[in-house]
Write a structure and sequence with these properties.
The chain is built from 4 helices and 4 strands, in the order ββααβααβ. The protein is α+β, with helices and mostly antiparallel strands and about 110 residues long. It has one domain. A 4-stranded antiparallel β-sheet has the order 2-1-3-4. α3 crosses α4. The radius of gyration is 16 Å and the shape is globular.
Length: about 110
Protein backbone atom coordinates (compact mmCIF):
# COMPACT_ATOMS: atom_id res chain seq x y z
CA UNK A 1 0.00 0.00 0.00
CA UNK A 2 1.34 3.43 -0.89
CA UNK A 3 1.19 6.55 1.24
CA UNK A 4 0.26 10.08 0.20
CA UNK A 5 2.24 12.95 1.68
CA UNK A 6 1.56 16.67 1.72
CA UNK A 7 4.92 18.47 1.61
CA UNK A 8 5.48 22.22 1.89
CA UNK A 9 8.79 24.05 1.83
CA UNK A 10 10.21 27.48 1.15
CA UNK A 11 13.61 29.07 0.69
CA UNK A 12 14.16 28.71 4.45
CA UNK A 13 13.61 24.94 4.47
CA UNK A 14 10.95 22.29 4.97
CA UNK A 15 7.81 23.65 6.60
CA UNK A 16 5.61 20.56 6.84
CA UNK A 17 5.49 16.94 5.76
CA UNK A 18 2.27 15.14 6.64
CA UNK A 19 1.13 11.60 5.82
CA UNK A 20 -2.43 12.26 4.63
CA UNK A 21 -3.23 8.63 3.75
CA UNK A 22 -4.45 7.54 7.17
CA UNK A 23 -6.51 10.67 7.66
CA UNK A 24 -8.27 10.20 4.31
CA UNK A 25 -9.07 6.54 5.04
CA UNK A 26 -10.40 7.28 8.51
CA UNK A 27 -12.64 10.08 7.25
CA UNK A 28 -13.98 7.78 4.50
CA UNK A 29 -14.99 5.14 7.09
CA UNK A 30 -16.64 7.82 9.26
CA UNK A 31 -18.70 8.97 6.27
CA UNK A 32 -19.69 5.40 5.37
CA UNK A 33 -20.76 4.67 8.96
CA UNK A 34 -22.77 7.89 9.09
CA UNK A 35 -20.71 9.17 12.01
CA UNK A 36 -20.03 12.86 12.46
CA UNK A 37 -16.70 13.82 10.93
CA UNK A 38 -13.99 14.54 13.44
CA UNK A 39 -11.61 17.45 13.19
CA UNK A 40 -8.82 16.49 10.82
CA UNK A 41 -5.15 16.63 11.75
CA UNK A 42 -4.26 17.63 8.19
CA UNK A 43 -4.06 21.39 7.70
CA UNK A 44 -6.56 22.92 5.33
CA UNK A 45 -4.99 23.38 1.88
CA UNK A 46 -6.48 26.88 1.71
CA UNK A 47 -4.60 27.82 4.90
CA UNK A 48 -1.34 26.61 3.38
CA UNK A 49 -2.06 28.50 0.15
CA UNK A 50 -2.88 31.66 2.09
CA UNK A 51 0.38 31.35 4.03
CA UNK A 52 2.27 30.97 0.74
CA UNK A 53 0.60 33.98 -0.86
CA UNK A 54 1.04 36.28 2.14
CA UNK A 55 4.71 35.32 2.48
CA UNK A 56 5.60 35.44 -1.22
CA UNK A 57 9.16 36.54 -0.40
CA UNK A 58 9.76 32.99 0.93
CA UNK A 59 8.91 31.32 -2.44
CA UNK A 60 6.74 28.48 -1.09
CA UNK A 61 6.18 25.19 -2.90
CA UNK A 62 3.40 22.76 -1.97
CA UNK A 63 3.37 19.23 -3.38
CA UNK A 64 1.61 15.96 -2.85
CA UNK A 65 3.73 12.89 -3.33
CA UNK A 66 3.07 9.16 -3.28
CA UNK A 67 5.61 6.85 -1.64
CA UNK A 68 5.79 3.10 -1.26
CA UNK A 69 4.90 1.39 1.99
CA UNK A 70 7.65 1.73 4.55
CA UNK A 71 8.52 5.34 3.78
CA UNK A 72 7.37 7.66 6.54
CA UNK A 73 7.09 11.40 6.99
CA UNK A 74 10.19 11.16 9.22
CA UNK A 75 12.12 9.66 6.29
CA UNK A 76 11.17 12.60 4.09
CA UNK A 77 12.10 15.08 6.83
CA UNK A 78 15.48 13.33 7.19
CA UNK A 79 15.96 13.56 3.41
CA UNK A 80 15.38 17.34 3.57
CA UNK A 81 17.77 17.64 6.55
CA UNK A 82 20.52 15.69 4.79
CA UNK A 83 20.29 17.32 1.36
CA UNK A 84 17.57 19.97 0.92
CA UNK A 85 18.25 20.68 -2.76
CA UNK A 86 18.21 17.06 -3.90
CA UNK A 87 15.12 16.42 -1.75
CA UNK A 88 13.29 19.34 -3.36
CA UNK A 89 14.37 18.20 -6.83
CA UNK A 90 13.16 14.66 -6.11
CA UNK A 91 9.76 15.84 -4.86
CA UNK A 92 9.41 18.14 -7.89
CA UNK A 93 10.19 15.22 -10.22
CA UNK A 94 7.98 12.61 -8.52
CA UNK A 95 5.25 14.68 -6.89
CA UNK A 96 2.24 16.67 -7.98
CA UNK A 97 2.62 20.46 -7.71
CA UNK A 98 -0.25 22.09 -5.84
CA UNK A 99 1.36 25.53 -5.59
CA UNK A 100 4.72 27.00 -6.58
CA UNK A 101 6.26 30.42 -6.14
CA UNK A 102 9.65 28.99 -6.98
CA UNK A 103 12.27 31.68 -7.48
CA UNK A 104 13.73 31.85 -10.96
CA UNK A 105 16.82 33.53 -12.32
CA UNK A 106 15.15 34.84 -15.46
CA UNK A 107 15.07 38.45 -14.27
CA UNK A 108 17.41 40.82 -16.04
CA UNK A 109 18.96 43.35 -13.73
CA UNK A 110 20.23 46.57 -15.20
CA UNK A 111 22.78 48.38 -13.12
Amino acid sequence: MSHQFLIMWCNEGLECCIDITEDQQQRMWERLKGQPLRETAVPNYNHLLLRARVNSQRHYEVYTCEATDGITAEDIRAMFDASPQSAADTIRRLGHCMHSDRATNDRVLIT
